[in-house]
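Batch manifest, entry 17 of 40.
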Amino acid sequence: PRFFRRGEKELAKAQRKLSKAEQGTPERAKRRRAVQHIHQRIANRRRNFAHQKSRELVNRFGLIAFEDLRIKNMLQNHGLAKSISDAAWRQLIQFTAYKAENAGRVVVWVDPRDTSQKCSCCGTMVEKSLSVRVHACPVCGLVMDRDQNAAINILRLGLESLGYDALEAPAFRRGE
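Output type: structure tokens
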């Protein structure tokens, strides 16, 4: 939902007002509280969304597979850092994991290496840059969204880590 991006202009305006206020004055304290309030509101919206989405995932699926991403390392890419932080992936994963544990569901983490490069149909490695959003396999002819291809690979790896064949996936959808 990009909560930070939506509130960014309002936050910048409040921070400009704060910077113009003289230090040690009641006006500055008031403006500092206004900036804190905007930050808090963004954080609350993000947390609320993570709680709702994690509950939806746990209620809907018996097996939830996440890529074991090194989010701290990904934040070093300055072009993507703000968007990655705004998405709060780690928070969503934590909320989903504890809710799944309480509900008796299974959460697995899989190695993210080559999940979007490998063809989910035939297993061929199809090299592509991050800007290429469509997976097109030259061997089997499969054409689909890059993220959907990666999701299928992540599910397959999650099932394999539990010792299941990929054909048994529908049993987990029903929450068995």
